[in-house]
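User: I've been going back and forth on whether these two constructs are worth ordering. Before I decide, could you fold them both?

Assistant: Sure. I'll take them in the order you sent them. The first construct and its structure tokens:
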Amino acid sequence: MVAFEDRIDALGTLRASESVSLTASVTETISALNFDDGDRVTAGKVLAEMTSAEEHAQLEEAHALVEEAERQYRRVQSLASQGTAAKSLLDERRREYDTARARLIGIESRLSDRLIRAPFDGVVGLRNISIGALVEPGDLITTLDNDATMKLDLSVPSLFLSSLTPGLDVSATTRAYSEREFAGRVHSIDSRVDPVTRSLVVRVLLPNREGLLKPGMLMQVSLRKDPRHSLVIPETALMPAGREQFVFVAVPVATLYKVEKRRIRIGSRRPGEVEVTEGLSEGDLVITHGALRVRPGQTVAVRAIDKGEQPLSELIGNPDKAAGASGRSE
């Protein structure tokens, strides 16, 4: 029995869990830049400022108008409560107060448009502007990625739909770090299957505590399910007949072995090996080499027993280790 698990292999491109291009929303001159390329920033940090002297002057004026409008409204409100001011005058002062407040809010909004803030924690990209540059709406200032956790969208054949569940363990590799394996989990599964490719998108989340993973990297992913211990034989031992699978087993008879044909049921596969769910027991000698030269009932000599520890050619070439059918059932 060997450790075995179901695997689905797929390719995907990394994306940050949150990503945004920070652009200007007004036509104005850049007056300050508060970040360098690749800085890590927190949500709310002001990254860029635009010239706003006129708006600040208007803001001070608006504050003064609001204070005066409120004072007039409170005065008339007090008189109206004593019956010495008409209700129409009170309504007029209320409208003036509301208008002044609305104008103040509008100016504050225009000032806010001149500040580029980080909407979330993350790492900024390259700076695309300089202080003094005139920017227009839509001009790119920089990018911001939250790379604490990376998203990886995979296109998986719908054939594997029954094997896909949120929380499924995933291992991912990339050529950039060929000796590293990154662990993650399936986060969500698309609700629709593509009618053309008959595949669906599976979203995987990969923790990125060391910051090694970058948006745009190509990842090779193995989705793992149902770890278990199973009987495993080499694919070369299979003798298909229609929809059924058979193997030849070397059964001990006195000092020799007799060939027996067994019908088996196979489970999952992995490169070079196949899982056997029925028809074999642990320790059975399955003929893996020379199976085409034997027949059921034939007496054979086992030349070597392959336990997966070294190449069969070495076993055959070493008389001390050669036991006489090559094969194994683990």
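The second construct, handled the same way:
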Amino acid sequence: MAAAAAVSSVDESVKALGDSFDGIPVIDVGAWLKKDGAEVDAETIATECAKAAASLRKYGCVFARDPAFDSKDNDRFLDTLEKYFETPEDARMKDTHPELSYQVGATPAFTELPRNHCDRMKAYKDTDKPLSECPPEKDCKWRFFWRIGERPAETKFGELNAAPVVPEGIPEWTDVMNTWGGKLLGCVTCVAQMAARGFGLEDDAFSSRMDMGPHLLAPTATDLKRFGKEGTVCAGYHRDLNFLTIHGKSRFPGLYVWTREGKKLAVRVPEGCLLVQAGIQAEYITAGHVMAGYHEVVVTPQTLEAVERATAAGRSIWRISSTLFSHMASDGMLEPIGKFASEEAAKDYPPSWWGTRSRPSSRQSTSRATQRRPPPRRERSSHAHPGS
């Protein structure tokens, strides 16, 4: 009851959503983890689930406070990625696999190209416009893909489930990536379950479809020595193609998100929290009730302040994002479910394989991608990657 009430009032005052940071609600994953015990009452659980669902609908994202999260793990991850990207570029190029459309290993700078959303961008108020160019330009960031979780023994989408690439000279790499990626996947799975209950679905309506998905730890890296001028776009305006994306806190701010009403928000991840964003699979499975959230990363005055502090301390000024893309299983059917399924929804979101929404040909943010026309409802609505 509480969940349904909160979701129905999603367009009312943000205050109704409870704990928030910069207006974006913060949900307590710890309460969900204790739901079967006597420590947390049912009303608290219902409220947290309602907040998860309402925030994903209104903002396309939500902050999650998870007791399993340790800032030391995030720091260890960032340290390791900084160490890797400080190595010579020629060495990193050995870790690239263009024959797999960069689905594993490293992706060089100026490879990923966001889809053209110029019409949408021009429709925003001046204060809400992205800084990304129209038409879009290739991103100056690098990326590294590392698979997380088990993969199916047989699949129609082998390139989504390829073996990982382990860089040379960093013996701790596998442990660091698996530890941090595993924690991110655990948290985003809980958020998926909380949102499902908040939407009035079965708890596992989303998470069961995530089982054996091609989840990817996909940190980005921007060399702020080369691309540290204020206003530089590190990641162009886009949406994510996966289900839910989860991020740890970056050492260099610069992420902006857009609400479904088109309001631009600067994101500051609270200490002890993770950021979860909705992707196109989430939009598809809810028939647009949740819209895939648009976002971009740019160099801001706050980014430059962080660069000054890092330089003074003798630290790396590669901007690393600790990003994980959670996916629905590649061989599952992609279509609206439960109360979101209807004849009208089937027209706008026709059934297709999950994997066809995550194949290289569907990844509009890579330079090899095919520019597909999404369902009309999605393009008419306000609402990344990889992304679109």
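Notes on the second construct follow. The mean pLDDT is 87. The longest strand covers residues 142-147.
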